[in-house]
UniProtKB/TrEMBL annotation:
Keyword Zinc: no
Annotated family: Belongs to the TRAFAC class translation factor GTPase superfamily. Classic translation factor GTPase family. PrfC subfamily.
Pfam families: EF-G_D2 (PF22042), GTP_EFTU (PF00009), RF3_C (PF16658)
Keywords: Cytoplasm, GTP-binding, Nucleotide-binding, Protein biosynthesis
Cell location: Cytoplasm
UniProt-recorded name of the protein: Peptide chain release factor 3
Organism: Algoriphagus oliviformis
Residue ranges occupied by any Tr-type G domain in the UniProt entry: 8-277
């Protein structure tokens, strides 16, 4: 198969959702449809139950599950689908953001009872930054949920994206009868079942057909006719181009746990979702069909086996053909790297492969050379952009409790930061080390893993910090002057970039006003 054909048949995406909306369930059903798994229950939830959050075995177990489910590849109707997993706990949101840099589109699951929840809003913001195409799946229609029109309004309002229903529910909860597929003009009737995979879609190009009354009852039939009229009147015709540009989100209704509405969404997904797209580097745009290979690392899993300091780096292939054992340019590093152990993830199985194509994610066994954000190429010295660190929200000072283990602590911290568990900032004054995270849980994870994997003991002391802002200026003199006058608040990130540690929002605002020639950035990429 030619490179162009390989690219055309790939769809790389992630499912995102607020916890409990049904991400794991939907993932499992997609794998069942794709024939990648045979039984329900095979996909383990990667949720960390907050009730058991001090149970470290639980976190370690979840880390194990995360490796197994990081990428789930399967074939469906001749399309190679790469489904990337995102963490179930919001404290690991940064990990999700990074995973979203490696996909070409997303499916967003929304619970019809709860509507748009906070985590969904945050994730949507990240999608918007990259204009990632989004399909919405409104789930749990077998429950008494909110009015579908209200839900659509809420999605538009809270997620700030236009929507276009492509299916429409008939009833809800106990009265849920099925969905009408507006895209294919077919009716799919609901029978609660967690096993049944085939669906019985009937074409209904003409809703006036009296057969409809017989199937769903005259009241439902009339309601559906009214709804469809209204939708066709209110919403503009669905334009795939708008979806691909991230301007409009097609919406499907269904019930993942009952396998209902999933098939229809999947069929539409493979038709409309984008194949691997071009990507920006600091030098130029890279198109997937370029002959020469390029890719970037978006995730690292380390120390799964405490006896070996092994790590798996997850590489997204952006162009060309990636080959096992071929030396590649590690753009940030001192020497070329070659990989003999290249894994691809098919459903729950790992297999060693010899080559991979744009859109694919491969796992590279690495002994410590790779970092998140690293680019590999077939020679060119370019770096993929759009994999930023965001300013953390919680900051704590690292206190070493065992001076004999300082080296181990430094090494452990460095490696955990390379894995992207959190961000480390070192103050210029006194070299105080501060860890910044988006969630409370990471501090406990870091403390536990430092002890367990590096034999280092730390405590974390709360710090009164609001944001870490990366600072730059066109005027070097002004920047030097700023660094001198604010030296107490100046730190360096892992790449030695200058960071201003602001104590409060109002104070930051004041400093920004007083120093108009200094630029303050809230992500590490600018
Ligand atoms: P998540 O990964 O997004 O966090 O959600 P997950 O799939 O684990 O689903 C959360 C809960 O919602 C699960 O129930 C799941 O069974 C249920 N669920 C998923 N889809 C549907 C649906 O279409 N209808 C209804 N009624 N429920 C649905 P649980 O009680 O937490 O777990 P379980 O014991 O049922 O597995």
């Amino acid at each position: 198969m030619s490179l162009t054909e390989e690219i055309k048949k790939r769809r790389t995406f992630a499912i995102i959702a607020h916890p409990d909306a049904g991400k794991t369930t939907l993932t499992e059903k997609l794998l069942l449809f794709g024939g990648a798994i045979q039984t329900a229950g095979a996909v383990k939830s990667n949720k960390i139950d907050t009730a058991t959050k001090s149970d470290w075995m639980e976190i370690e177990k979840q880390r194990g599950i995360s490796v197994a489910t990081s990428v789930m590849g399967f074939e469906y109707k001749d399309i190679k689908i790469n489904l990337l997993d995102t963490p179930g706990h919001q404290d690991f949101a940064e990990d999700t953001y990074r995973t979203l840099t490696a996909v070409d589109s997303v499916i967003m699951v929304i619970d019809c009872v709860k509507g748009v929840e906070i985590q969904t809003e945050k994730l949507m913001e990240v999608c918007r930054m990259r204009n990632t195409p989004v399909i919405c799946f409104i789930n749990k229609l077998d429950r008494e949920g909110r009015d579908p029109y209200d839900l659509l309004d809420e999605v538009e309002e809270k997620l700030n994206i236009k929507v276009r229903p492509l299916s429409w529910p008939i009833g809800m909860g106990k009265g849920f009868k099925g969905v009408y597929n507006l895209y294919e003009k077919s009716l799919n009737l609901f029978t609660p079942s967690q096993r049944k995979l085939s669906d019985d879609r009937q074409k209904f190009a003409n809703l006036e057909d009296p057969e409809l009354d017989k199937l769903i009852g005259p009241n439902n039939a009339n309601q559906l006719r009214e709804d469809v009229d209204l939708i066709e009147g209110v919403y503009p015709e669905f334009d795939v181009k708008d979806y691909l540009e991230g301007k409009i989100a097609p919406v499907f209704f269904g019930s993942a746990v009952n396998n209902f509405g999933v098939n229809e969404m999947l069929d539409t997904f493979i038709q409309i979702a984008p194949a691997p797209k071009s990507r920006e580097t600091d030098l130029r745009e890279v198109t997937p069909d370029e002959k020469k290979f390029s890719g970037f690392v978006f995730k690292i899993h380390a120390n799964m086996d405490p006896n070996h300091r092994n790590r798996i780096a997850f590489l997204r292939i952006c162009s060309g053909t990636f080959e096992r054992n071929k030396p590649y340019n590690h753009v940030r590093g001192p020497k070329p790297l070659r990989f003999s152990n290249v894994t691809q993830f098919m459903a729950q199985e790992k297999e060693i492969i010899d080559e991979a194509f744009p859109g694919d994610i491969v796992g590279l066994y690495d002994t410590g050379n790779l970092k998140i954000g690293d680019t590999l190429t077939e020679g060119e010295n370019m770096v993929f952009t759009g994999i930023p660190s965001f300013s953390p929200e919680i900051f704590r000072e690292v206190i070493n409790k065992d001076a004999m283990k300082t080296k181990q602590l430094e090494k452990g911290l460095k490696q955990l930061m390379e894995e992207g568990v959190a961000q480390l900032f070192t103050f210029d004054m006194g070299s105080r080390k501060v860890v910044g995270t988006v969630g409370q849980l990471q501090f406990e994870v870091i403390q536990f893993r430092l002890k367990n994997e590096y034999n280092a003991t730390v405590e974390f002391h709360p710090m009164n910090l609001y944001k870490a802002c990366w600072i730059t200026s066109k005027d070097k003199k002004q920047l030097d002057e700023f660094v001198r006058s604010k030296s107490r608040y100046i730190a360096r990130d892992k790449d030695d970039k200058l960071v201003f540690m602001a104590e409060s929002r109002s104070w930051l605002q004041m400093v920004q006003d007083n120093y108009p020639e200094i630029e303050f950035h809230f992500t590490s990429e600018f």
